[in-house]
Amino acid sequence: MAGGVIRTTCPYCGVGCGLHVAADGTLTGDPQHPANCGRLCSKGAALADTLASDGRLLYPQIGSRNANWHEALDRIAAEFTQVIDQFGPDSVALYVSGQFLTEDYYVANKLMKGFIGTANIDTNSRLCMASSVAGHVRAFGEDIVPGCYEDIEQADLVVLVGSNLAWCHPVLYQRLVTAKEQHKTKIVVIDPRQTATYNIADLHLAIRPGSDVAVFAGLLVHLAEHGQCKHPWTHDFATGYAATLDAARMTAPTFVDAAAIADVPAADLKQFYGWFAATERSTTLYSQGINQSSSGTDKVNAIINCHLATGRIGRPGMGPFSLTGQPNAMGGREVGGLANQLAAHMSFADPADVDRARRFWNAPRMATRAGLKAVDLFDAVLEGRIKALWILNTNPAASMPRAERVRAALGACPFVVVSDCWPTDTTRFADIVLPAAGWSEKDGTITNSERCISRQRAFRQPPGGARPDWWMVTEVARRMGWASAFDYRGPADIFREHAGLSAFENTGPHRRVFDLGALCELSASQYEDLPAVHWPLPRGTSEPWSSPKRLFGDGRGFATPDGRAR
Ligand code: SF4
């Protein structure tokens, strides 16, 4: 807090804009935050209108009556313990949210995977981001966005695929519009629809829905045939180039074939291919139109392949760039809040990772395999395999695919707990409802699309008895018998441990890129004052913390066994 101003972060989208909150409650953009440099979109600018407490959940409810926290937490711990004793750890589940702060995510993930002994924790970020996670791991060996927002301004060609930037990431759209005005950035929009983003396009490819892989396979073939696939990358820094090119040729041998598959004029596609081939500073931004697909991971890799094959990655103005939807989808991925992730970019596929997490947590009952992913999780609830479910900060009765089936599952589940700020379609199914603190009332961190960790700072007291999610989870964990492992005084303690896990035994040639070692001994005041920082931040990075905003630009550092991209 400086001069009565509190610096915090917008809770709406993955751009992660910094905010100033004045003593009189006025909200403005933080001119020093790297995501927005003082800008705000209409959603961020209207945040003060969301602060009314009318209709908020104020007290725990058991059935239709108000209860106190002790009674509610005791009951949750007892029910979960009884179900686990009778049916085993895989009979319980948590369904969480990209609205969680990283500290909320960390304790929930630790409780489930290290102490209850199941990986049945998944997040609504699964629905929007899991394809990018899988694509990154497949190409880079780890879930890493190689670039930063400045690339959008420094590119000479920006390709937007499956992204309505104008509506979904408005401040990045503003940055792109300004860049276009200043140095005539060429913009290609690939989208079946004419969205608001279409208005700034030099070329719009209204492709047939689902034909993205053919478009980018055709681009790879075109790049290879026009001498753009650089030797250092295709031979020294990446593995599988020849096989990838063969596969691309089978998918779309010529631009005419790709145009036929995508149902766009061949001349337009040729134009796009020509611009991409001729423009080294090319950045490809993609979002849910790519991710939310039955072939989303292949679409992600088809895009990444074109950047790897040309070496256009991790240098100013160039790279594949996945834009996250929710404010902390990225923080959840760092923690390992997806059912098929372990923790801190470690994997269930590697027994050494599982053992490492077990030793770090001193975990009594370590999960050793992936758990149920969101859709499968609710199917398991409907089939009676999940008997106790805790839903935090999300409304699956309205927002999941096949929501009718999800509502049937919730209605059939023997024990449902829901934590939220307001009554929702999902709280109707809860045996216990817990009142959660909202974004303006809780402290922690979030990570935006460009790997930038920002503090979210409370500037109001929660109404009634509302409490932060990390507190609820740790209180239940303590009541289940793990008091010393969940003995946190506040979010700073949790963040330090999260950073410590990322750095634990993280040395040698196969070190994990996700490393916050420099932050694992933050004092309370350093955590309080933490500026926006990009990771990785390994031990030895000194204050003011700075890290390379871009990764892999020299062709090195991929988290694969041989250090080469795939
Ligand atoms: Fe908030 Fe996103 Fe708008 Fe930035 S772009 S102010 S993070 S809604």
Keywords for this structure?
single chain; 566 residues; alpha/beta; Dimethylsulfoxide Reductase, domain 2; seven-stranded mixed β-sheet; five-stranded parallel β-sheet; 22 helices; binds iron/sulfur cluster
Characterise this structure.
- The chain is α/β, with parallel strands linked by helices and 566 residues long.
- The protein has three domains: 6-50, N-terminal domain of TfIIb; 61-124 and 328-461 and 471-507, Rossmann fold (3-Layer(aba) Sandwich), CATH 3.40.50.740; 129-322, Dimethylsulfoxide Reductase, domain 2 (3-Layer(aba) Sandwich).
- 39% of the residues lie in helices and 13% in strands.
- It has 22 helices and 18 strands.
- The strands form four sheets. The chain has a seven-stranded mixed β-sheet, sandwiched between helices. It has a five-stranded parallel β-sheet with strand order 10-9-8-11-12. Strands 1-2-3 form a three-stranded antiparallel β-sheet, with no helix packed on it.
- The chain starts with 5 loop residues before the first strand and ends in a 32-residue tail after the last strand.
- The relative contact order is 0.17.
- Iron/sulfur cluster binds at residues 10, 12-13, 15-17, 36, 40-41, 43-44, 169-171.
